Each structure stands twice: as C-alpha cells, then as structure tokens.
Amino acid sequence: MPRNPSEQPLIWIEAGQALPSPDQAWGAQSPAPGLVAASRDLSATRLVESYSQGIFPWYSKGQPVLWWSPDPRMVLRPKDFRLHRSLRQAFKRRQLHNGFSMSFDRDFHQVIERCSQAPREGQNGTWIVPNMIDAYQELHNMGLAHSAELWLHGELVAGLYFVALGHAVFGESMFTTVTDGSKMTLAFLVSVCLQHGIVTIDCQQNTRHLASLGAQEMPRAEFLTLVQQAQCMPPVDWGLQTLYWDLLTTLDTAS
C-alpha cells in the first residue's frame, strides 16, 4: 500500500484485460474516492462486465474512460420511494390530459441524447460524451439498457435511461422539459420494480434530489451482494410494462 492514499497509482486497463475488483477502488482520503481504473475502450461488452461488478463509467470529454465504484453507494429501494403530494397531483393533472402517455423503450436514442444535452447543476459540460452514447445504444440493442419516457401529444418531454441485468437495475441519467417530469419517469420505473419484486435501483452518488425521493447510502459490500443476487433473477420485459398506479398509491405521501 502507498504510504499516502494520494500516492495510490491508477490502474490502467488495456482492451481485453479484466477490470480490477471494486475493493481496489481509491479510498475516502484519496483525490478521487471510488475510482477503480482507467481505460481507452468503452463497449457494450465492457459495460456488461463493469455493471455486473457494481462498476460504472464516468468521465468528461478529453479524459480516458474512468471506472468507479463508490463506497458508500447511493441506492433507492422502491418500497422507500417518496411519492410527495405535489408529485401525486402532477400525475393526476397529466392523467386528465388526453395527450399524456408513458412508455419504456419507445425511443431510447432520443432519451440518452436529450440527457446528454440537459444542463447539470455545477457543471459546464456533460459526461454523456459521444462514445458513451454509442456504447449504451449498443447495450440497448442487446436488451440490457432501457429508457422510461413521458410523452405529451407525441412529444418526448421527460425521460431517464438505465441498465438492467436480471433484477439488478442501475439508474443513469434523466432529463425533463416539464415540471416534475423526471420525477414522474422515476416513479414509473419504481412502480414496475415494485410489481416485479426488484429491491434496489442504483443511484450511484449521493445528491439532495435523490435523498428527497427516498434514496439512501449503503455500504459497497452490501450493495455488491445485492447486485450478485439480483443478476440471477429473470429479466423484465421492459417494453411491455405500464404504470402500475395502485402500487404507487401505497407509497409515502409526505410532502
């Protein structure tokens, strides 16, 4: 071990080499807690390898592909999702609108493109760079990356995309052009997870927004155990899923 965590060398992975174990990630006192490795390659095959171990890519234009597994991990248990009163009312307003509809996988490419263009608080650019879009599109073509969508009169106004390996669900990014749109797409995802007994949705990193919706931190070791178990469950046919309102109404309505 280096004498100083800041001196810990970054593991470089060449194409064809396996990613290191998440327990080799940089620690809390390092310059980049949770950083596992760096590489040049990013492909659907590499993404399957990484997500199956609880590792995800996150980097900016001009950087190598950086692979992360933070400890603790931010996760949302669907049963803990907070359906605030304002969000419940937003659903009711939209349901009265004839042009309102929600879907999975109707237009994955548009969702990830719109997520890449969405402004981020405290960020000047985007981490959803072109080669990342290409890799996740390839993963979608394999049936392992999906989008949840909100439509008004045929126009996509909100969405999120995620990775699903069996019952292991990993949230990635979301966008909206209407009030509460991203929360509604997340609620849509939560409702289907509840219906199929999916116990966690990975949120990666702690934010106030996610915490306000019921997400909490979990030790990485516990998270990785859940991921290994969930991968063994049969996959969900996301394209056939619809909003399960009865399940959502049982959730926390505190404002």
Overview of the molecule:
The protein contains 8 helices and 11 strands. It has helices at residues 44-51, 85-95, 108-117, 130-141, 181-196, 208-212, 220-231, 245-248, and strands at residues 12-13, 35-39, 56-57, 65-68, 73-76, 100-104, 145-152, 155-165, 168-176, 201-204, 216-218. The strands form 2 sheets. Strands 6-7-8-9-10-5-11 form a 7-stranded mixed β-sheet, with helices on both faces. The chain has a 4-stranded mixed β-sheet with strand order 1-2-4-3, covered by helices on one side. A hairpin with a 2-residue loop joins β8 (155-165) and β9. α1 (44-51) crosses α4 (130-141). Mean pLDDT is 90; it is low at 1-5.
Largest sheet: 7 strands, mixed
How many separate helices? 8
Number of strands: 11
User: Helix and strand string, N-terminal first?
Assistant: EEHEEEHEHHEEEHEHEHH
Strand order of the largest sheet: 6-7-8-9-10-5-11
Provide the helix percentage: 25-40%
Q: How much strand?
A: 15-25%
How far is the N terminus from the C terminus? 48 Å
What topology emerges from the helices and strands here?
Elements lengths: L11 E2 L21 E5 L4 H8 L4 E2 L7 E4 L4 E4 L8 H11 L4 E5 L3 H10 L12 H12 L3 E8 L2 E11 L2 E9 L4 H16 L4 E4 L3 H5 L3 E3 L1 H12 L13 H4 L7
Parallel strand pairs: 1-2, 9-10
Antiparallel strand pairs: 2-4, 3-4, 5-10, 5-11, 6-7, 7-8, 8-9
